[in-house]
Every structure is written in C-alpha cells, then in structure tokens.
Amino acid sequence: MSKLMKFGNKVVVVTGVSSGIGRACAEKFAQQGCQVFGTVRSIAKGQPIPGVKFVEMDVRDDASVQRGIQSVIDQANRIDVLVNNAGMMMLGAVEETSIAEVASLFDTNVSGILRTTKAVLPHMRAQNSGRIINISSVLGFLPAPYLGLYAASKHAVEGLSESLDHEVRQFGVRVVLVEPAFTKTNLDANSPQAASLIPAYDNEHGNVSKAVNKNVSYAPEPDGVADTILDAAFGKWRMRRQPKGRAVLLSKLRRFLPATLVDSSLRKDFGLS
Fold this sequence. Notes:
- The protein is an alpha/beta fold and 273 residues long.
- The protein is built from 10 helices and 7 strands.
- Strands 3-2-1-4-5-6-7 form a 7-stranded parallel β-sheet, with helices on both faces.
- Helix 2 (20-31) crosses helix 8 and helix 4 runs parallel beside helix 5 (148-168).
- Residues 1-5 have low confidence and may be disordered.
C-alpha cells in the first residue's frame, strides 16, 4: 500500500501556515494525500498552498478557534491530527519584559495551544483516535538568556503536553512534542524586542541579537522540521522528537554532559563572555 493511499483519508489541521515551519508542514501533509486545513489570521492575505484549505482563525481568541475547528468538522466530519505550530518569540532580558508582554506571549504560545486542543479533543474522543503535535523548541528543555520568557513559554508547553498525554491516551489520543533548534524562519529572524530596554543590559543584549541572527543565517530550512512533524503524526508514538542535526545533539548534551559544560557551551553560543 502506498503512503498516499495510507494517509489519503487522514484529516490534518495545522495552525499558523502563513510561513516557515507551518507552511512547510502543511505542504508535506498535502503531498502525502491528506486532507489538510491550515489556519491563518486572514484568508485574504494568505498565499495559497496547493492541496491546503485555509481556515481563518486567531489562536488568541476563543470564539475564533471554536468557529475554525467547527468549520473543519463541518467539511471533513473528523480531525485525525492537530499540529499546534502558531507561536511568537520575544527578545529581551527577563527584567526588561513587561507583564503585558509576557501575557501576550503566553496567550499565543501556551493558551493558544490550550484553545485549539480543547476545541479538537471532543471530536478525537468521540472517534477514539487522534494525535496532537505541539511544536516546542530546544528552548523547552534549555535556558535561553535574553529569550527567557520565550523559553519559559516552551517549558510550559512541554509540561502541558506530557501531562495531557497521560490524560487522553485512554481515548486513543496521543500527544507529541517536536523540538527544533534554530530554523530559517521569520519567527527567529524578526522576533520583536521587549519595549522597555534597560541600558545596563545593552552590551550583552547586542551580542545575543548578533548571535541569534548568525545562528538563523546558518540554520537549515524548515523542511527538515516538517519531515519530523510528519513522522510524529503517523509514526510510532514517542513523546519527544528532535529534527536531525543540532536539535538531537543539544538534547544529548543536556542529558549526558555535566551542567557546568552545558552552561559554558550555551553562553558561548549566545555570544556571552
């Protein structure tokens, strides 16, 4: 049986398909013959993706998410895979980041996942099957100077995902984390900075900005992450999956190296003395 025949009846929802990992991921699922629904904030502004139906949805808005998921059910009658990809990043020292900025970041990166998951789960429970894939990051298990609140949001995604998986596996539903390293996307390259900068952090802040830009410039295209997501959707269940390359290496370093070596390596990578 060909993969196209095997996956052709699968209904997949991918959030945040306007660019980057989400777009590459939606394309991969469509190429496998899946019925793919990709969420965008504005259908009018979205660039079409062959084989992908756009659904207008803002993961920060409860009503928008409910409408979007219901429209998928109305068209396809089921949802087999949910890929929670929509997210945002913020660059700035923890002290520089306002509570309002933290709330906005967590509203997208954590509450956004909760909204879509809560909207999809009743349908997955009813069909007694489903897989939820949450796009985390290596910063879900590593610290990140000057990306501290982003790292905090991804740590939250990891805790939420592992806990959720224990709750829903009784219904035939499993949850998977995909943890990419730096990837050549607009999320990394064009991340907003905290609004209220503190001069005392300027020197290191500048070094970290340069280091992030350098890492992104040498980072792989999102296709490799998309392949990992595809495998996470249809392969044997495993809680954590890292795309080949640097993400796998960082996972092993975190697990097996002494903390002092991990600390010094991380500081060097972020351009800190």
